[in-house]
Amino acid sequence: MKETTKCLIIGSGPAGYTAAIYASRANLKPILIEGLLPGGQLTQTTTVENFPGYPEGVGGFEMMDDMRNQALKFGTDIRSGFVTKVSLEGKKKSVIVDDEIEIEADSVIIATGASAKHLGIDDERKYTGMGVSACATCDGFFFRKKTVCVVGGGDTACADALYLAGLCKKVYLVVRKDYLRASKVMAERVASQENIEILFNHELIGIEGDGKVEKANLVCNKDNSTKGVSTDGIFIAIGHHPNTELVKDVVKTDEAGYIVTNNGTSHTNIEGVFAAGDVCDPRYRQAITAAASGCKAALDAEHYLLEA
């Protein structure tokens, strides 16, 4: 059975739900496919304090539920499921959901997000939301005047370490190599920061704590010796990967796999296909910027359909 819609949104989270709100209010009658993680990465975040409109903070799951309900209120057809195949070239776009349902759309908004890379140790997921984070900008505020560890040696890790150094008493930068992969200027800034201590040739192998992070267990790559570092939080900063596997062969992406949009808009290289949120944002990766780009994508889709 083939269904049709003016606007199909692939992915949820702040970008997808915001796009749905705007598209619904424009009477595009959008269908939104939520994907493997309805609500996106924020549903795994305990408290969000930097999103406007929530002066007392809000749980990540609760905030995504609010956005979802707002999209539903204006008529968005929200469906659970996972897009397994796309055909985006041509005037009519075709999408297969769960290998069964075909939806033909006049426009498509890709809001599949990005996923933080993980180390793969068991304790990493065990303590997620209880001291382990992949977003210093999101969660650093909770560790003011405390001690934290940042894991990674690239620009992302150095930027996180510098940001946290402005909030925290002490920052350990855990680097598995004997040098920083970051740009020279970032490496120099980290080295000159008094409350950052770089632990070269070390890797995180375990985490301890009674219901929250209290200790990071490290191994030295040079002599295999181990040591524990007392810490209140651990920030994994080894990068993100955009969730573009489904569309990377047809939609233009950069070297890291992020969708390339045109001239500050949400337009991709394919007419009628738009991108929003972290899937096209390697720099900011914030809920508020994702929501804003979802608004842009819906407006761009509306204008495209009016001119078609």
What CATH calls the topology of the largest domain is FAD/NAD(P)-binding domain
* C-alpha termini separation: 26 Å
What would you say the CATH architecture of the largest domain is?
A: 3-Layer(bba) Sandwich
**Helix/strand order:** EHEHEEEEEHEHEHEHEEEEEEEH
Specify the number of helices: 7
**Morphology:** elongated
Number of strands: 17
Largest sheet: 7 strands, mixed
Task: Give a description of the structure.
By secondary structure, the chain is an alpha/beta fold. It folds into 2 domains: 2-115 and 240-307, FAD/NAD(P)-binding domain; 118-236, FAD/NAD(P)-binding domain. It has 7 helices and 17 strands. The longest helix is centred in the last third of the chain and has 21 residues, at 287-307. The relative contact order is 0.18.
